[in-house]
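QUALITY CONTROL LOG
STEP: pairwise intake check
CHECKER ROLE: data steward
CRITERIA: each record must contain a sequence immediately followed by its structure tokens, with no blank fields

ENTRY 1 OF 2
RESULT FIELD BELOW
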Amino acid sequence: MDDAPDEPVEIPINGELDLHTFAPRETAAVLDAYVEACLERGIRSLRVIHGKGSGTLRETVHAWLRRDPRVKSFRLGDETSGAWGATLVELRPRLQD
């Protein structure tokens, strides 16, 4: 068995973030970095996949989204975008420097 440290996970910045590959304790840091990376690329519509499960991860994601000033709005997905296993997020435009 290899004792090498965990390698960083490379995530495509395409507006879709699947949280299944991360530990729940990493949720806030992953969301923060992903939102920033999307804004840097001009992506303002996101789909965050948290799964249905018990709803704990969904609530963690929603609590984080409520506190982030970069988030304009969010809602659960519909039947074509993951239903209650995904959250659709609209980001505010980035202020120009």
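ENTRY 2 OF 2
RESULT FIELD BELOW
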Amino acid sequence: MSADRLRVLVLNGPNLNLLGAREPAVYGRTTLAEIERALAAHADALGLDVECHQSNHEGALLDLLHGAMGRCAGVVFNPGAYTHTSIALRDAVAGIALPVVEVHLSNTEAREDFRKVSHVGAVCLGRIMGFGPQGYLLALDALRAHLAAR
């Protein structure tokens, strides 16, 4: 990572480590490692650095969000199932005062009713969902445009 380039935290929540194998009809066959490689290449083309993390543990995700303060210019965040349940992650996103783009591989609005509620989305810059792995690149584009406009 270059000291003169903006750094973006890419954070993935529970079960996203299983991408490629978990419910491929819903989430596709692309692995998280493949998404991270595509993000790194795309970020480089945008003049950004990305730092990718995944955790199945809510507290670890909280710590990573807190740790982004003062180090990162923004966050691309797929909270996974915590999207629909975690007030703590919602409060962390609000508390770090960084632009955060929420991303989901599937269109959560077209799925089960419980997936239509995002506690995190209300405090994010925006939400991108339903475009599979491309959604991460779109989120990075949106975040870069937002940062350039500031």
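INTAKE CHECK: passed for both entries
DESCRIPTIVE NOTE, ENTRY 2: Residues 103 and 128 are 5 Å apart (CA to CA).
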